[in-house]
Write a structure and sequence with these properties.
Two copies of one chain form a homodimer. By secondary structure, chain A is α/β, with parallel strands linked by helices. Chain A is built from 14 helices and 13 strands.
Amino acid sequence: MAERRPAWCYRRTSDLTRDEAEALDRADELAAFRERFVIPDGVIYLDGNSLGPLPKATATRVAQVVEQEWGQSLIRSWTDHGWIDLPMRVGEKIGQLIGAASGTTVVADSTSVNLFKLLVAALDLRPDRKAILTEHGNFPTDLYVAQGLTALLQCGHVLRSVPATDLLTALDRQVAVLMLTHVNYRSGAMHDMAALTRAAHRVGALVLWDLSHSVGAMPLRLAADDVDLAVGCGYKYLNGGPGAPAFLHVAQRLQADLRLPLTGWLGHAEPFAFEDLYRPACGIARAVVGTPPILSLAALDVGVDVSLQTSMLIVREKSLRLASMFIALMESEPGFNLLTPRSADLRGSQVSFAHPQGYAIMQALIKRGVIGDFRAPDVLRFGLAPLYVRFVDVWDAVSTLRDVMRENAWHDPRFQQRRSVT
Amino acid sequence: MAERRPAWCYRRTSDLTRDEAEALDRADELAAFRERFVIPDGVIYLDGNSLGPLPKATATRVAQVVEQEWGQSLIRSWTDHGWIDLPMRVGEKIGQLIGAASGTTVVADSTSVNLFKLLVAALDLRPDRKAILTEHGNFPTDLYVAQGLTALLQCGHVLRSVPATDLLTALDRQVAVLMLTHVNYRSGAMHDMAALTRAAHRVGALVLWDLSHSVGAMPLRLAADDVDLAVGCGYKYLNGGPGAPAFLHVAQRLQADLRLPLTGWLGHAEPFAFEDLYRPACGIARAVVGTPPILSLAALDVGVDVSLQTSMLIVREKSLRLASMFIALMESEPGFNLLTPRSADLRGSQVSFAHPQGYAIMQALIKRGVIGDFRAPDVLRFGLAPLYVRFVDVWDAVSTLRDVMRENAWHDPRFQQRRSVT
């Protein structure tokens, strides 16, 4: 068995051999988790930051929900199989993954819709303030939702967007809520959640963290960091399936005064009383709006369960090692500009490189079974999900990338032309 | 083969025999559709107005989406298996069922969230008007969403709720939008969509119809009736599965000026350009907000396909006959107060009765395999979905109800006590 080597080691380990990578896998305490996922033959899957792969238990569970619960028990499953409690039950599990207190996290709607709900709630809790502060290049849906909301309210609210480096100076007493994505979808850069939350609180602002690119990939400490509000995605590192429902978190101390704009029947204090007047359910349960998509929610439940079977500390440690190795192996490859911070404290669970021919390179990689993804104009993203990505996968991915670069005529002007019509 | 008898016939046919009911089933041109659904042995399922049963093809399709599309093709399925187009594709199919023009219907979110989106759009299209007009006893989520919205906007908007009989007189030039559910969830009473839409248009108001209890159970003519806006549910008569995504409709003539408040990344003109500024997608596609729950959406697709394989005219005719028969057979049963209008023009696809012991009676029925449902305080609802409910089911359901009434001591004061703590 290979001895474990510290993560920093790989910064200069561009000469790591494939055997050494395999040895690291043999020593990996998460190695067995890979067996819980369907990873197709010939595929190196480095896109779990976009859509996590299928946990093997999910097919069985979804079939059971479809054939037994829906098919045989029909409407009775809302109570007999606990469908009605699923949003709270799965939310509670996600709460454990993100270090949130019990009763603060629930599954509902999509990340976009949840952002809308919590932005409205934040503005309502800070009625004298008009600014939503965010950073340039935040995930588009976060920006779009805030734009849509300020246009809707027509009460002088503004979305103030600044470069990340200016966030602290832009945090003033006009800011009602600081809305940030914890890990940037494009670069993989990670914010210091505790520090920014403290800074926001110092000026009386709330924080709304989008955890889409961090939940399931690292330990989070929402309670300890005193986070007010958060949302996140179920289909990336939580492996909940395509378009899995999202989640949202509201700190206990804010729940009594929490007013949400989407007041659906399932967030009512007594949904089955069918009253004419809305009365919010107690606590976070009011954030459920309409009837949740049970098949997708059941799949999310299974994905979350897989993550709960290990420690996010172990996941994070392997994630950093995988990324360090990826970065180190790429050092010798010219033309790739690393976008992800090198410091472990400053990055999430992906590595991103800019390359002028990024789109074509990614297409060529995908053809050879190395699945990452491309973000315009020139970013190659590689997600490193420790539950199923092996050290040898990173080694093979970089090796394939080298082959691609060697074999293709990226300098050919005809190629440039093809690219432009894609 | 039994001759088909006109629907009115059963109003006085409380002496119809079981053999005669079976003969009607043998002559039923929809009879073969029942084979496409899983109906558990010993169950008479009269709750399809709450949750439609499982189409047999759904289990196969969902397994394929899970195991092949997600499991094997992973992220590539967004394009290779057309996930990205599913909201528009399934929406287009639903558009056919509701008589809407092409390009006016899309699947997204829940009915509640879609109500919110379209109410905002309606108020935006009628900026000088402050009233949302609806009726007492509309489905709670419709009322709650409107209440949440008026509270959010704080611009003097009001939800004006009147008895159904007062709708026409309440329709004045302060009304921005008339929001009604086509078929009442409790009584099964049906509005005249064409007439009310005309009346609203006469005073310059828009209409927003909630089709949750009519889509899939009858022909609808949204284009011909000049309906502005509509929403509807996927898990009732569309048999899309528990919490299936909902749909919404916006008439073509309103789409150019359509401003929706929930501006998510998937409603952007170019989602994969990841621009910082929101630009709405062309037409109805902008109503998609976040990433849709694909497993649930694929199940909905199958359910909709089943309905598309017949004519809603045929479905409606059988629905009326089933209901007429149910009502006729119940005439001899004392203590049940029919809530559903007797006139075919005034009712949807369910029959409802009030009975002081409604809750306990429904529990007893369910125990014997006759699954309807109960709505407080005293309503027994029986959904009559013509694709799988047989005439003999209606006969057997009423027969079981008679047994229940004969065998139980509803007059026993101890029972009254039990009921009150339920």
